[in-house]
């Protein structure tokens, strides 16, 4: 079929390039949802072509996301935590090759909350195996394949807003959300990182999408996906408890609101009757706000008590570890004993419900007395959540429970090889470890950590997220209010939690970026309308409205001009924010991905020196042993990770050197830590002057990190403050650090101009704000009789 619209435009002398451009905008803004209509046989097109034409903008942004996440995926050396994850995933793959031998064996991989949930180990092991089958380099195990699962799930996450386009308001808002997720510095960087947070973020978004779709569509598979997403998120990271707290509390709030929405306010309290319609517009007409206020007055004190209890429980656990360990062990044993009875009870309920449904189907005409149920009092329009909970089929709920339980048992038992301990560990050990870590406060970051980190990277998401928040409050829907609650709830809980790390920021920025799309939508619509009007004016066409209003008043002309100026300012500001965000994403992902002192988001990172060390070891092995990986290597305790993974193919490696090592004079020694100077003196030929049994020494950076001068100053004990529980070290505070770095002059005060200059220089020139000397060093020592082959 020819495009008759374009053909007619050409005949009239209209610029067809402009009309095609407007159609691109219309694809996003005005594309209707598919409807069933009669189309003549000769004009029918394949369904895939129709869907491609409608959804190509979403496919394009998904392609952009994939490129940003997969290009150079294996270039970055493995982070300390990554090396742990991928090493034990490799162990799991080898275990599964001998699956029958792993039943009841402690030497096989089993769930350990120190390394977080078992999902990532299973999925990385699966990628290893598929890569081996496809003939990937290094037998399918390399720095690219270890991150493929993270990159895939980070890419999939970008497409989820498409499934929420009706909740977000339009296809355009959904596309903007996809785009912002695709280019977000945090989302891109941690999608290229073999850590569990990107998996958890993907499952959290899937949980939101599936729950929303089930409320609208009532299709059973959406509820099954809800159960699967929650189980997989729980099997990924213990922070799912925080997600459950936020989502669960919002669900309860909605239920409280809906329970009062159909109860009219007593007439004497209907203030719109007393003060008039205009004044009464701001006063409630139903009991829903009253029910919510009463609920809040009860729950807020309970929440305050609960957080205080969790804090004290964390302190108690770390103060009495043996007692706590015993108590948790008993809990796990009791859980193991109770689970069979719980399974039997569930199956009995299923049998009873099934028999009831079968009998009802056999006797559909049997008269029954009307029975009062809560479901009969629910209005699906005004109370969609209550209606979903009370009127959904029990089969849907059972299927969701069955799938989530199966995934939980499958992963925590490590494919059923550790059933006896895996289930109890999965239920109790994760929360136990999480509570322990809250008092440890790993990282020692201040409460304002994310308020400093996010503005440094997520400029367009932060500014437009605030705009979207305000717009959502002015034009609220339940989903918009949920996004606000989700974002602020995550910001509060992750700032309250003891452990604060940069990878946790994505759980805050994800709902923030959805709000940013809501905030950006009106500007894009207005620009699209302005562009279309410009095209019409360029082609000499006049609309009927333009003819009727040919003579405008001076006041309306000034208002129109002022509106256009504001639009131009907003567009320029948005383009600037986008440019800064893209610059940050490019720098942290493709330039300084291994330079901790230049990127706050990196925190601590293995440097490229590790690749230099491995190149030297591989070269020496090639020259001395023909590349058979039989070079004798001693690795001191402080250098175990990431070298456990990098030296995985070498067969003569002793870790913890020299303790317990049969060979006291290996060909290569790798040492690190605070005693590296002592190690150099002990083994270096240049210092001892003895060429027999000594080593040529070279010092490298093993890890480097971002300056932490933004931390609050160290507490100084006084008569009124003993600094109990305060960190023993710190910085100079965020304001002085932004102004002067980590070495301010005496009596210095916050200088906003210096702070702005420092941030600007970091944005565009990557000039570090603080010092760049923070590192843990490693020494490579090659035995003197071999140092002629390869210099260290």
Give a quick rundown of the structure:
By secondary structure, the protein is mostly helical. It is 61% helix and 4% strand. It has a domain at 607-707 and 776-783.
Number of strands: 6
Quick one: overall form? globular
Q: Quote the average pLDDT.
A: 85
Residue windows where pLDDT falls under 50 for at least 5 positions: 1-18
Structure description:
This protein is globular. A six-stranded mixed β-sheet has the order 1-5-6-4-2-3, sandwiched between helices. Helices cover 61% and strands 4% of the residues. The chain contains 31 helices and six strands. The chain is mainly alpha-helical. It has helices spanning 4-12, 16-29, 47-70, 80-97, 119-133, 148-159, 165-168, 171-183, 185-190, 197-217, 220-234, 240-260, 271-275, 277-280, 288-319, 321-362, 384-391, 394-412, 419-440, 449-457, 459-474, 478-496, 506-538, 544-548, 554-591, 609-625, 640-646, 676-683, 685-688, 734-740, 752-765; strands spanning 604-606, 633-635, 653-655, 668-672, 695-705, 775-783.
Provide the descriptors you would attach to this structure in a database record.
792 residues, disordered N terminus, 31 helices, 6 strands, 61% helix
Topology, please?
Elements (H helix, E strand, L loop, with lengths): L3 H9 L3 H14 L17 H24 L9 H18 L21 H15 L14 H12 L5 H4 L2 H13 L1 H6 L6 H21 L2 H15 L5 H21 L10 H5 L1 H4 L7 H32 L1 H42 L21 H8 L2 H19 L6 H22 L8 H9 L1 H16 L3 H19 L9 H33 L5 H5 L5 H38 L12 E3 L2 H17 L7 E3 L4 H7 L6 E3 L12 E5 L3 H8 L1 H4 L6 E11 L28 H7 L11 H14 L9 E9 L9
Parallel strand pairs: 2-3, 2-4
Antiparallel strand pairs: 1-5, 4-6, 5-6
